[in-house]
Amino acid sequence: MPVTADCHLHSSYSGDSREPMENLIRAALGRGLTHICLTEHMDMDFPVSEDTPADLFTLNTDAFLYDLALRKAEYADRIKILFGVELGLQPHLQKELALYAREYEFDFIIGSVHVVNGRDPYYPAYYEGRDDEEAYREYFQAVIDNLKRSSCFDVCGHLDYVVRYGRHKDRDYSYEKYRDLFDTMLELILEKEKGIELNTGSLRKGLSQASPHIDVLRRYRELGGEIVTVGSDAHRAEDVAADFDRAAELLKECGFRYYCVFEKRIPEFHKI
Ligand SMILES: [Zn+2]
Ligand SMILES: [Zn+2]
């Protein structure tokens, strides 16, 4: 079976998307999906700069939920629409994040690291004055630090997000090179009974791999990991379910027989 659930999507409720929710739903129907989960950005205390005004990634969760509930009812007989959020993790926000996650009845929460020691690796400044390895190590260490502090999510988003934006991207990047950090990360994820996501967005950013690297995915499976959701990270309708055939192949290659869809924070296993 192909993967028919896209569990990482951004509509115009996210500060960096202009796509109306309706367009994402129609695109999903056009691609034969059975489930979608809208996972809008909620990044508290995001660093303010010329490109990122204050509150750019502060989600108006009530408005989002209201709109989503209407669509959910409208499309109930055609597709299941789930209520999610991509929550930006930062160690000092441990308490605020936990309270926010409890405030709403989310179906699914992706915990993502977008800010490392006050900087977003999306911007070149993060890599200035150092090589990719040092920059990547700082990011992976930040994922570990957040995993130690927070548990208010279901899966870890794009574990190697930083590689998308490095000077040489994935040219000299492998699981082996960062094995020490990845193994710590994966052990923490398993200990907390969380999952990871297979994010196909990286393929659209010029990388040869989806996120995380296939060897990281394989290692998670080897260690006993079973919970994987699949997401396109689409911010535009045309990217909904992008590269999902490849995602299904990757999962099978790594030994997974199922992918997950979360509803009311409980994973449901779907055969690949
Ligand atoms: Zn993200
Ligand atoms: Zn995202």
State which percent range the strand residues make up. Answer: 15-25%
Low-confidence segments: none
Give the fraction of residues assigned to helices: 25-40%
Provide the succession of SSEs.
Answer: EHEHEHEHEHEHEHEE
Name the CATH homologous superfamily.
Metal-dependent hydrolases
State the end-to-end distance: 5 Å
Mean pLDDT: 97
Q: Which hetero ligands occur in this complex? A: zinc ion
Q: What's the overall geometry?
A: globular
Number of structurally distinct domains: 1
- The number of helical elements comes to 7
DSSP summary, beta strand count: 9
Structural class designation: alpha/beta
Question: Which strands sit side by side, in order, in the main sheet?
Answer: 1-2-3-4-5-6-7
CATH class: Alpha Beta
The CATH topology: TIM Barrel
CATH-defined architecture: Alpha-Beta Barrel
Question: In angstroms, what is the radius of gyration?
Answer: 17 Å
**What about the largest sheet?**
7 strands, parallel
Explain what you see:
This protein is of the alpha/beta class and 272 residues long. The protein has one domain: Alpha-Beta Barrel (TIM Barrel). 31% of the residues lie in helices and 18% in strands. It has seven helices and nine strands; from the N terminus they run E-H-E-H-E-H-E-H-E-H-E-H-E-H-E-E. The strands form two sheets. A seven-stranded parallel β-sheet has the order 1-2-3-4-5-6-7, with helices on one face. Strands 8-9 form a two-stranded antiparallel ribbon. Helix 4 packs parallel to helix 5 (179-191). The longest helix has 18 residues, at 132-149. It is globular. The site of one zinc ion has 4 residues, from loops.
